[in-house]
Write a structure and sequence with these properties.
A hairpin with a 4-residue loop joins strand 7 and strand 8. The longest helix has 13 residues. The protein has 206 residues and is α+β, with helices and mostly antiparallel strands. Helix content is 18%, strand content 27%.
Length: 206
């Protein structure tokens, strides 16, 4: 029998992330203390756990460069491409690279990742956001892959670690998973996410 996991969740939030005093602002974020600001990290699964692949290719091959450039234009967001002197790294949906991944020169691929996005715009002055998420996952024995943009951060974990990761998020102080959908994780590792909330209330973290 597979594992049925009802994700701890919050109401759908906007991009406001801060509260002051003891009040609740329009984003639903509640401050734990009046003595400062507490940042609640709100994670949302990207497309309900669509699988991603991480690819490494040789950087000096024109066809590899063209493939990476094409992904930036044609792939479903988010897609990440980084180039160093030794590699081009690509993080994209498996479906978006399925047609040409075998033609990449010198490619190393690691499939089966799922992504969570940190909701809101993250100022560069914020300290410890990814450290809190990483510490939470490390305590649960879950490795992660982190990707950052100008506005926010993405956290990827392997599909086989979703149960442990989301259980850790649900009990972590100051981290919330924004979803109200039941997820079934079968014995073979397959994920089934309901399109609507099932019977009974979802658990709401506060």
């Amino acid at each position: 029998m597979g594992v049925h996991l009802l994700i701890c969740c919050q109401r759908q939030f906007g991009t406001d992330r801060w509260c002051s005093g003891a009040a609740v602002d329009r984003s639903g974020c509640r401050l734990a203390s009046q003595r400062g600001m507490t940042h609640i990290i709100k994670l949302r699964p990207v497309d309900e756990l669509t699988p991603f692949v991480v690819i490494k290719v040789a950087p000096a091959v024109p066809s590899n460069q063209a493939a990476a450039a094409r992904l930036l234009v044609a792939a479903h967001a988010p897609v990440f491409v980084a180039r160093t002197s030794t590699e081009i790294s690509i993080v994209a949906r498996e479906e978006d690279v399925a047609d040409f991944r075998d033609s990449l020169i010198g490619a190393e691929c690691d499939d089966g990742w799922v992504a969570y996005v940190v909701l809101g715009t993250m100022e560069f002055s914020l300290v410890g956001i990814m450290a809190r998420v990483a510490t939470c996952l490390a305590a649960a024995g879950v490795p992660l892959l982190a990707q950052s943009t100008f506005d926010t951060d993405y956290v990827l974990v392997k599909r086989e670690h979703v149960t442990a990761a989301e259980a850790a998020f649900c009990v972590a102080e100051g981290i919330e998973v924004v979803r109200c959908l039941p997820v079934s994780i079968e014995d073979d590792g397959a994920l089934t996410v309901a399109t609507t909330v099932g019977a009974g209330p979802c658990t709401v973290t506060e």
